[in-house]
Design goal:
Strand content: under 5%
CATH architecture of the largest domain: Orthogonal Bundle
Helix content: over 70%
Largest sheet: none
Number of strands: 0
Order of helices and strands: HHHHHHHHHHHHHH
CATH class of the largest domain: Mainly Alpha
Structural class: mainly alpha
Length: 316
């Protein structure tokens, strides 16, 4: 319980600092959301109209006063309304997140299907043809930018073969190309991680002890080797979740996929401050909570970690 309270306190402090810094940095970004709303380039408006709209949105106040109002509304679970649509930020977030979760889930499925077998085979047949092929795949895959890979799959499957849609959403077919693109980009990294983790775990003392006791190879691999190999994989995955979300943004824009990625890019273009601030808050909470869940999962994968934490708490 004490560890949980410390984690929650650290999370709240982190969110406060992050929200304040991001709020201040947003005000330094070039551009005026009022001019974007009034479409100055298309319709002639007076300076009085601009100042009136700025006062209506509270943008004529200092940064600290604006942040104080935003923080006060946050305590009542009000993230404000979008400048462009006038709708609540939270409602728009709820509408967009299922699309991003579906894309992320299918991309992770593609990544697991590719990286896990290749990484395992590369470790089991180290130095052989299978190992060389998987390492070449990992090298090429990590060298290709995700947006360029996306253009390649669009050109092949949507333009030349015409068997899959190139953009939009609405059916499971629209998920195939962006999921393949993002999944291949991630699997190139995780093939090497799986291979390195299995090779490192295979030299541990408990593996040699299990072999000496006459335990079967399949049982050793499934219940000892793979279980021990999951710990560094989970650690790297939790640390790379930020890049995963960044890759989702690029893919969503490339495939015109309506999700959080395209939503935040459109908001940045329009200088829609409430959406940008709300997105950063949601994503920071998601990343921190995910890291906490991964850390707690160590206690079940490796009980020695839980024992060490209890001893540390007892001595402190």
């Amino acid at each position: 319980m004490r560890i949980l309270v410390q984690k929650i306190t650290g999370l709240l402090l982190f969110l406060f600092i992050l929200s304040f810094v991001s709020f201040c940095l947003l005000k330094l970004v070039p551009g005026d959301p009022v001019r974007s709303m009034l479409r100055v380039d298309d319709v002639a408006v007076t300076n009085d109209q601009i100042q009136q709209m700025r006062a209506q949105l509270g943008l004529d106040q200092s940064v600290f006063i604006q942040y104080g109002y935003w923080l006060q509304n946050l305590f009542s679970l009000d993230l404000g309304n979008s400048y462009m649509t006038g709708r609540p930020v939270f409602i728009e977030f709820i509408e967009k997140i299922p699309y991003t979760l579906m894309l992320t889930g299918t991309s992770l499925l593609v990544m697991i299907i590719i990286s896990l077998p290749l990484g395992i085979l590369s470790a089991l047949y180290r130095g052989r043809l299978t190992d060389h092929i998987s390492r070449i795949f990992a090298l090429i895959g990590s060298s290709i930018p995700s947006f360029w890979l996306g253009l390649l799959v669009i050109d092949l499957f949507a333009v030349k073969l015409r068997i899959l849609p190139s953009m939009g959403e609405g059916s499971w077919q629209h998920l195939i190309l962006p999921s393949i693109t993002l999944g291949i980009a991630m699997s190139a990294v995780y093939v090497r991680l799986v291979r390195a983790s299995i090779l490192e775990s295979s030299h541990q003392e408990f593996i040699r002890s299990a072999r000496a006791r006459g335990i079967g190879k399949n049982r050793i691999f499934t219940f000892h080797l793979m279980r021990h190999s999951l710990i560094p994989l989970l650690t790297v995955f939790s640390e790379s979740i930020g890049s995963l979300l960044g890759g989702t943004v690029v893919i969503e824009v490339l495939f015109a996929y309506t999700g959080l990625g395209k939503w935040i890019v459109d908001a940045i273009t329009a200088r829609d401050y409430p959406i940008i601030q709300g997105y950063m808050l949601f994503m920071s909470i998601f990343i921190v909570v995910l890291n906490m869940l991964v850390e707690w999962s160590y206690r079940y994968i490796n009980p020695a970690i839980a024992i060490g934490q209890r001893k540390k708490g007892a001595t402190s």
